[in-house]
Amino acid sequence: MKAELSIRQLGRLTRATAQGGDAQFRNLRNALLLKNFVIAAERENVLELRRRAYVTQDDWPMRVIVRRDGSRFEIDYYLYIPWGWIAAFTFLMLLVLPFAGIPNAPLAFGLATVVAALAIYRQKFDCRPNARFWQQRPRQRWHDTMERLLREAFTRP
Q1: Statement: residue 157 has pLDDT above 60
Q2: Which of 74, 101, 123, 149 could make an SS bond with 67 (beta carbons 3.0 to 4.6 A apart)?
Q3: Which of 82, 79, 81, 107 has the alpha carbon at shortest distance from 93?
Q4: CA distance 57 to 63
Q5: CA 78 to CA 24: how far, in whole Å?
Q6: CA dist list (Å): 19 to 23, 96, 123
Q7: Which helix (H) or strand (E) is 66 found in, with range?
Q8: How much of the chain exceeds pLDDT 90, in percent?
């Protein structure tokens, strides 16, 4: 069976669509588990996997959601900033900045507020091959990795 795999960048996430059956679903699931993903939710036609951050290795947390409708698969994946990180940064900003003895503390507080707002606004990042600026290398690397895993999973008999 020759699989038709299409990958599109939808702004904040990357969506792949493919045709396949149970064997392809198992191949993809097993390949993702081998890449240190953990199953977050598994229902009859939906599988959600998460991967923890390896920040010292220039790797951010990632989420993969596989939806199945008969023989059609829709796979969404993206890197993201966890809400826990945003909450911890905001908490530290409110707790530490007033007592840190920083000259121009209002300026530092303003900059930290802008960073927190930007993190909330741009929480998800797609995995595009021509990514630039924010998380360029991990996004490009995960594009290549996911494309390879998807092609292997959906083209094997």
Answers
A1: no
A2: 74
A3: 107
A4: 18
A5: 21
A6: 11, 52, 30
A7: strand 62-69
A8: 4
Question: Which three-class secondary structure state does DSSP give residue 5?
Answer: coil
Task: Write the pLDDT tens digit of every residue in 102-151.
Answer: 777 777 778 888 888 877 777 777 666 666 666 667 777 888 888 888 88
Assign 61 to helix, strand or coil: coil
- What single-letter DSSP state applies at residue 9? E
Residue with tokens 């045709």: 19
Residue with tokens 């990958």: 7
Region of residue 152 (phi > 0: left; psi between -120 and 50: alpha; otherwise: beta)? alpha
Do the beta carbons of residue 12 and residue 124 sit within 8 Å?
yes
Longest dimension (CA), the chain: 66
Sign of the alpha-carbon torsion through 147, 148, 149, 153: positive
* Distance spanning both ends of the chain, measured CA to CA: 7
Residue range 73-101, pLDDT digits in tens: 899 988 887 888 788 888 887 777 777 77
